[in-house]
Amino acid sequence: MVKPGYRTSEFWFTLVSFLFSGLYLIGLFGEDVQQKDDLIRDVSHGVESVILISGQLALLWKYLNSRKEIKKTWWSTATPEERKTANRIITRSKTKKKPKKPIQPKAE
Predict the structure, then answer these.
(1) Domain range spanning residue 64?
(2) Which residue among 20, 37, 62, 74 is buried most deeply as judged by most CB within 10 Å?
(3) Each residue of 7-63: pLDDT tens digit?
(4) 52 lies in a domain?
(5) Residues 56, 48: contact at Cβ < 8 Å?
(6) Number of domains in the chain
């Protein structure tokens, strides 16, 4: 299956390079060295942030899928008694818990 063009990294790299080239040709940056350094710093920070967040989301997705597979395997191999016990625990945890009674001070 071939990905649509907008879902490829080549598309996004090309788009960003065209945008920066256009901004340079228009004259919005290029002459002022400080402005160029600021732009490089900001873009680098943005790219690093995207990479970091993407990595964290990939790890979370992998963890959730592995937990789902473990639970699926357990439910398919569990005995009826184990399933009954697990359903009781799940049902109990979903019900609203009653508030605890406040402790009454002892009368002297």
Answers:
(1) 42-91
(2) 20
(3) 788 888 888 888 888 887 777 766 667 777 888 888 888 889 989 999 999 999 999
(4) yes
(5) no
(6) 1
Contact 52, 58 (CB under 8 A): no
pTM for the complete prediction? 0.48
Instruction: State both tokens at 84.
Output: 């009954």
Which residue matches tokens 């350094």?
37
Helix (H) or strand (E) holding 77: helix 33-77
Q: How many CA atoms lie within 13 A of 14 on its CB side?
A: 7
Ramachandran area for residue 27 (φ above 0: left; ψ -120 to 50: alpha; else beta): left
- The answer to whether the CB of 83 falls within 8 A of the CB of 75 is yes
In a domain, 25, yes or no: no
- Tokens representing residue 28 in the block: 């919005």
- Whether residue 74 lies inside any domain: the answer is yes
The upper half-sphere exposure of residue 92, i.e. CA atoms within 13 Å in the direction of its Cβ, equals 6
Residue 36, amino acid: K
